[in-house]
Every structure is written in C-alpha cells, then in structure tokens.
Amino acid sequence: MITTTSLYDQLTSLYKEKRNDTESAWLSNLREDAFKAFTRNGFPTTKQEDWRFTNIAPFLKEDFLLHPGEASLHSSKKAGSIPQFDAHEIVLKNGMLNEDVTIPGISISPLRTALKDERFKSYLSKHIPLNAQPMAALNTAMFEHGIVIEADKNIIADKPIHVTYIYNAAEPVFVQPRLLIIANKSSKLQVVESLLIMGESPIFINSVTECYVAENAQADHYVLQVTPPNVRWVNFNQTIQSADSLYNNYTYTLPGGLLFRNNIHLDLNGTNTESHLYGLYLTGPGQLTDNHTCVNHLNPNCFSNELYKGVLMRDSRAVFNGKIFVQQDAQKTNAFQQNNNMLLSNNAIIDSKPQLEIFADDVKCSHGSTVGNFNDEALFYLKARGIGDVAARNLLVNAFAFDVTNKIQVPAVQEYVEKIITQKMAEAYD
Amino acid sequence: MLLDIKNLQASVENKQILKGINLQVNPGEVHAIMGPNGSGKSSLASVLTGRQNYEVTGGEVSFDGRDLLDMSPEDRAREGLFLAFQYPIEIPGVSNINFLRTALNEIRAYHNEPPIEAKEFLKLTREKQKLVEFDAKLTNRSLNEGFSGGEKKRNEIFQLAMLNPKLSILDETDSGLDIDALRIVSNGVNKLRSDKNAFIVITHYQRLLEYIVPDFVHVLYDGKIVKSGTKELALELEEKGYDWIKEPVTTASV
Ligand SMILES: Nc1ncnc2c1ncn2[C@@H]1O[C@H](COP(=O)(O)OP(=O)(O)OP(=O)(O)O)[C@@H](O)[C@H]1O
Ligand SMILES: [Mg+2]
User: Whose CA is nearest to atom 26 of ligand 1?
Assistant: First the structure.
C-alpha cells in the first residue's frame, strides 16, 4: 500500500466509511460524539498542558495500516507469557478473541457481540471525559475488537485471568484495543494484561480499558508493559468504584517501547472504598514514559493510596503527573500519593508534578515527590563484600522498586517482573 | 606475607589523614590497632578496602603478593579482604540472604567457580549462623534494616564467617556489644582463626583483646603508627591513656 495521506485523514475517511455498519443506535451515537470530540482538536500536541512533555506527533508519521495482517500470527506460541503462571489464558490475536474461553461465573465475550445488548450502554465510555481525552475519544469512535470480562455477582475467581494481546507488526500498524472489565457485586477477580509483538515495524497502540468495580467487589488489575522497541503505547484506564469496593492497579513499564503514556483515572463513586495505584517505570535508551493519574474522591470515607516509582537510565525521560481531587462531599477522605525517582544517568530527565485539589475540610491527604541517585555508601558496602558494579546496582534498583514489586499479589507475576528488571538493567547500562 | 603496607599516605578532601603507615601482617597473626578518636584507624581500613573519597597520595600496599591499591573494591574483597564496618549501613529492600548469596557467587565467579548449590548454601548459612549465634530470623530480613547496634555488628561477623576471607579488619566491632555478645562474637572469630588467615582488630578497649588475643598491638596516632608492641601494650594503654605516647612523637617530628 502506498499512501501519502496523514494518519488523521486516514482515520477520518475510515470513520466515514464505517458509519453504515450495523451497530445499535446508542453505540453509533456514542461513536459520533466521540468522533466529534476527537476531530475538534485532533491528536494531542505539546501546546496542551496535559501533553506538555509528551510529543506523540513524531510517532504518528508512519504509513500505518489500520488493520494488521494475519500472516505471521499462526504460531500458537506463548513466548513472552509469564513462566509458572497458573491463570486463565486469553489470547487476543490482532485484538480478536478466536477461541471460546469458559470460566465458571465469569463471562468472556467479544466486545462487538456483547454490545448488541443495550445493558452495556450504561458502561461503555460512560465516565471517560471524551472532550478532554482525544486519544480515548478516538478509540471510542473507532475501536473494532476487544473483549468484555464480567464476573457474576458473588463469584470469586479461582485464578487470575491473563489477557495477552498479540499483534503482527510486520508492517507499521495503528491499533486500538478495548477492554471492559466488570466485577459485579461482591465478586473478586484479577486481570493481568500483557503484550506480545511479532515483527519489527512500528506499532502504535491506542488502548482503552474500563473497569467497573461494583459494591463490595474486588478487582486487581495488572498492566505489564514489557515490549520491544517498535512499540508506542497510549493507554487510557478508567475505573469506577462503587461503595465498599477494592481496586488495585499495577502499571509496570519496562525498557523497550519508545513511548508510553498511561492515563489512569479513578472515580470513587461510592463510600468506604479502598484503592491502590502502584506504578513502576524503568526507562531505557531513548524512551519516554509518561504516567498521568487522576484520583477523584466524590464520596465520604474513601481511602486511596498511590505509589509510583521510577528508575531512569541513559537518555530517557519520564513524566509523572498525579492529580487527586477531593470533592466537597468527600469528607473523611484519606488520600496519599508518593512518587520517587532514581536518576541513574546525567542525561535522564524526570518531570514530576503532584497535584492536590481539596474542596472538603475533614480530610487527610499527603503527597510527595523525590529524585535521587544511587546511595554511594550502600554501593560501597556491597562492593566491599565482593559484589561487582552491575550486580550491586541491580540489587539497589530492585531494592528501590521493592516497595512496589512486593505489592504484586501473584508470586509468578512478581518473579517475572523482578527478573525483567534485572535483565533490562543489565542491557541498558551506561 | 599476607599484607605489606609501606609508607602509606592518604588524604580526604585535601586533608592529609594517613601520614606514612608501615605495617606487615603474616598469615595466622592477629594485629590490634588502637589509638585516640580521629587518629585515622577507620581511614586506614577505608583506604585498604578502596573507599572512593580517599585519595592515596603515597606509598604502596601489597596483598598476598598483589598490588592492592590497583584493584577495585570488589576485587579486593574477592581476593580475600574483608572489613567489618564500624557503622554498617542499612539497605532496605535487599534481603540479607539474597545479599549473601550474591556476594558468595560473585566471589566464586571471580575464581572461576560455579554458583553455589541451593542446598549447600543453606547448609553453609545454618552452620555459620550457629557459629556466631546469629538469629535466623534476622537472616531473612532486609540488610541491617531496623537491626539494633549489636545485631548489626553480629551481622558483620556472620558475613565474615560466610565469606571466609584471608584478611579481616574488624573496625570497633566490640563497641555497642553487651558482654554476652562480645563473648559470642569473639568466640566466633577465634573459631575462624587459622594459620592461613589473619585479623586486624581495631578497638579502643583492652577488654576485647582478652577474648581475641593479639600477637601484636599498634598505636595509631595522627596518621602514623607511633608504637608497636605485644598484648601487654594494650594493658599499658588502658592504664595510662595515650598522652605518654603522643609526647615523644611530637618532639621527635619537630
Ligand atoms: N569524609 C571526610 N571528610 C573530612 N574529614 C574526614 C572524612 N572522613 C574522615 N575524616 C577525618 O579523618 C580523621 C580520621 O578519621 P577516622 O574515622 O579514620 O578516625 P578513627 O581513628 O577511626 O576514629 P574513631 O576512633 O573515632 O573511630 C578525622 O579527623 C576525621 O574527621
Ligand atoms: Mg573509626
């Protein structure tokens, strides 16, 4: 395919082509609104405050295919999957669910099939601020594939659900996966998302995940961003918690892909909720990792805790922007946020910006941000015991990340993440 | 000869701290170094182990026939030099046991030996824990994190036992230890003594030297060894303090 049209033009003409698709009226109305929200400003630019440090424009210049080819996906290989991980495995090839997965009490269905049901109108993009989030709006307007994971009321999942996205990047592709997780009343589930890329052409992922944690339900949500260098990934994660629910988000970004932008939005829509957002970003050569989180306390007696830790190597760059809103009704809120960074190179740059906006008076909130280096005393202590420079630094980085990695509730996932940290550290040494 | 220090001079932040140290240590020997605060005892240990902020301005040191000052801190340790720190640092998030396994394997790799088998490591850990009566619960905690002063010192000796160095420098390992701990630590050291290894024991107190009996006692004052003798010297210092030693040096150096 030879094309000189811009991605923007390509997307808008594809959108118009698709308008006649047989989708329910509510969905096509939603898509229309989302499309307008996207086209109003187009792709985000660094002129917008929220994207000030993150310029995606250079990554959009490829001649992208909007439908990845099937060719190289025939292998049923599970490479990149997590060793010793006892999970319900769901593999999405180029975004599509090809085999039936049966898990007692939990339904897994292709999004397009599921969306024929009017019921999902009250979930899909219901809480995403489309006008302020052009990338999420674009995904909403144009996503094709994706799945719904829904746990029935009172169901406690027997093991984690591991969703692996496999994409063919034999040619440059632009893909828009979509995941909807619903944990109904008093249910409990763990979802682990990971990625497997075949091929070495640039792949731009514009993903949206929505997670509804109903009354008294619990959801653990892991996003493992272990990727090759050809990945660029903009991710929007919207979670809505009802009363007495628990939500844990673990977003771990390791060296590889050149661009990561994670938007983690959390609305506390009921009282007495608990939420933990754990983030780890290890940035390697030429990489930019940008985490924008937003925790919105709308109700009384909720507890939120956020811990993001970053280790920056070489000429990498990271952005942390953490917003906490405590609305007027959200009395007795406990909201904590911490962002700690270790800069391992003079060429690395971190922009860290915690933001607290409190409109209630009886609350406990704190936030903090630190930037440091290796502790020379600790390094010397380790070396004085015969531990070489690389191993000593690995130990200290793992120790730094430990507060975050030890929060992982699945031992196989924890081991996997720790192993990748060590491996990536060794590869990215100055 | 295991250690041969010749006219060693070193400075930190342009301040001369070691002003010409001479010391020879043979396998099987225990040397005690005493001396007033700030005289340079820990500095000597730091220079020997390769701490970065010290600059060697003169002299030479050979360790087991090799140029010690030419080696990286980790290679010095791998060649068999060990320092029990005066102030062991806490490293949260690094487990004691993982740290020891890493250290042991790094040392083995240096000598072209394969990593230690899990079973063998466990056995070694148990054995050495017993030897220095180190609480097994502490082994699994983060390195020195929240350890009491005495526990940290005992951990140093436990590490010493695990790594089995040729030359160990104990920098005031006795301070902060209660009398039982002192006995335990000293017993541990005595059990580890052999005709192949040697110890340099830095201390302010003769008491320790009743447990770990030295072959030689040296007095370090103002960056120099100003007097050397046998264990009786320690007793004399305990009684008379350092003033009688300071005097002749000051006059002699004029
Ligand atoms: N980083 C440093 N910067 C400046 N001066 C230093 C530094 N480290 C050590 N010194 C100085 O070097 C001198 C020797 O210190 P050192 O710690 O070696 O003494 P010491 O004999 O071990 O004393 P103590 O018995 O109190 O442990 C002291 O005057 C000390 O202040
Ligand atoms: Mg000292």
Answer: B37
